[in-house]
Amino acid sequence: MAGKIRIRAQQQGDYTEVKALMRHPMETGLRKDQAGEPIPAHFIEEVTVTHKGNVVMHAYWGAAVSANPFLGIQFEGGAVGEDVTVVWTDNKGETGEGTTKIR
What we know:
The protein is mostly beta strands. The chain has a single domain (5-30, 38-101), classed as Sandwich (Immunoglobulin-like). It has strands at residues 5-12, 15-22, 44-51, 54-60, 70-76, 83-90, 95-101. The chain is elongated and about 55 Å long.
């Protein structure tokens, strides 16, 4: 599953505010389906936000994060028209990526 990420980045004075919505099931591995069989764990493990080739945020997530997680961060710097990229990797090796321009 190449995960889709909806991103918005906006300049707020000296800071850039980034909001991202990631589509992902975020299964813990503890739930069961209707037949009583366990649903395999499938969750985002790493999230990275970059600006101009520099990592501005790197996080390690786990199964406790809800489905279709929302991420909101601020970082110092950034100018209108520059790119911000959000990338995630999950426990199955799948990735999602999205890029937007700062407004």
